[in-house]
Amino acid sequence: MALYADLHRHLGGSVVPRILWRYFQRHDEQLAQRFPDYYKFEEFYTRERSSLDEYLELHTLVESVQTVKTLPYFIYRLIRGAYIFENLAYLELRYTPYYRTAHDLSQHERIEQMGTIVEIVGKASQVKEYPMITSQILCMHTRLPYEVNKAIVDLAASRRDYVCAVDIAGGDSHVRERLDEFIRLYQYARSLGIKTTGHLFETVNGCYPELLPYLMRIGHGIQIPLKYPELLKEVAQLNQCLEICPTTYLKTGTLEDLSELKIVFERCFEAGVDIAICTDNAGLHNVRLPFEYENLLTQNIIDFAQLEACQDAAFRHAFAWPYQQRPASLLTGLLQETYLDDHSSKPLLTL
């Protein structure tokens, strides 16, 4: 039964360890030799890293095998798992299309090929036996030149049938030296009517309030309630939603314990700031969305009412969800109507 929405999931980090390792064994001799034993690979792939930058290096491993030919293979398995094991009704996949193009092409040719990548991802995400609404968020990248990042924004504007927003990825500490450039890119995106989110305030090295006015959602954003709670009023006024990805902060060394998120949720709820609970990199973490919910509940970080509020917020802030209500509400109404229809003609039991 599809009930949930994940607003922050990276295509590169979404491949679960078993699927990725099996692909290596079948199709990539070099990587198969590097990782001959599955359990050693799983330990390497999912272990905690010392920093966000070290953690992000793992994306290059997956990006190297996500190509024009192989993307349908990975996406089919991603959609199947998200529908069957996570009960997702809605999924936004984010990635940098430039890093899925052929490396032997020129920069201009790779920019041209990005459109093909977007179409492949879009078509592969539409799996009839696993009905789910999906959309793409195209990520600009801190390691890419301005020309490529601008082309990513232009591509998002031209493929609104598949793309719902733009983002910036690549490690939040690397934004500082190009902050004015990324402000211009976000201004340009908003001028084209493109929706926006951005990896911001994830770590103490990635806090750029100058970018806040241009974002409709904030990728992570946990340092706002932790270190800059005075900004929560502005976030609430802008109706921005934080995309909180709990396991990520343990894997990147950003937080030492999940309990540190309790104050994040408390301060956001007090300030009227919405939170959507997300997975970020479900494959790298080997943790699916329902387990993120369960971990927060069992560790007393949130209660069930707060969880439901976060689930509501996810659909309310989803860039491409076409309905006014989340699936659970629609289903409840349908079941109530069915119950009334079944019992309306039956006599009441009397004593």
TrEMBL record:
Protein name per Swiss-Prot or TrEMBL: adenosine deaminase
Pfam families the UniProt entry points to: A_deaminase
Domain Adenosine deaminase stretches: 5-320
A molecular function (GO) term: adenosine deaminase activity
Top enzyme class: hydrolase
Keyword Zinc included in the entry's annotation: yes
The keyword NAD is annotated on this UniProt entry: no
Essential cofactor(s): Zn(2+)
GO CC, alphabetical: cytosol
Biological process terms in GO annotation: adenosine catabolic process; hypoxanthine salvage; inosine biosynthetic process
Record's keyword terms, sorted: Hydrolase, Metal-binding, Zinc
Domain of life, per lineage: Bacteria
Taxonomic classification: Bacteria, Bacillati, Cyanobacteriota, Cyanophyceae, Oscillatoriophycideae
Enzyme Commission code(s) on record: 3.5.4.4
Similarity annotation: Belongs to the metallo-dependent hydrolases superfamily. Adenosine and AMP deaminases family.
InterPro entries associated with the record: A_deaminase_dom, Ado/ade_deaminase, Metal_Hydrolase
